[in-house]
What we know:
Strand content: 15-25%
Amino acid sequence: MLLPLISFLIFRKETNSALVMPGHYKWDTVVEKIKKGKKTNDTIWHKLADISLQNQLGDTITWDSLKGKIVIADLFFTHCPTICPTMTKNMKRMAESINNGQKVGDRSNKLVHFLSFSVDPERDSVEQLKRWTDRFQINPENWWLLTGNKKEIYDFAIKEMMIFAEDGKGIDTSFIHSDRFVLIDSSRHLRGFYNGMDSSSLAQLSRDLVLLTMERAPNEKSGFRDKMLIMAIAFLSTIFGAGLFMYLLKRKK
């Protein structure tokens, strides 16, 4: 009877030590709290500012459009003569590799959404983004190319997502932007930066994404998972109690 419990405890310890969740990268403040008589610090992580941009379908996109979604974002522009086509192809491979895990029925991805912000919004109109979509066969159901106010895009990239972008003033070779893919959780917190041109970095992004899908939201109840230890002990105690009762009953007879 002890063997299953011991095995469960060992497995639980090894699993918890192996699951290292992606960290946080931007905080607003640290709040000091008293919990059970002990002083603790609670970090308030920065929540990305709202956006209002247009996607390749002409729809207005805000964070409300992405409620509950984990987001993978990058920067690009359609006249890019260097890294943008490769980054788009790498993001497409990742987007196509994610599904809802069902063996039958709808296998489309419901949890992760991809965003590509144009750093050349003056030339990247909705129509131009649609041409890029058609060129790379991008699925608009889980991947939006975004254009809009240039200042809003640059402020969001640099100040919120913490990645570099420089205005090329209409000259393609002078547009400089980050080659990073940015991982954003469903609470709009920054959770990771990955080289969009490097296969090992993208493999790490895939692993971190899986872990992030397992993470509970701060206000979500722990549910069944956190009660497994109590259930295991209760189950074994019941078996032990029943066995002891049968033994004593048999002995009495």
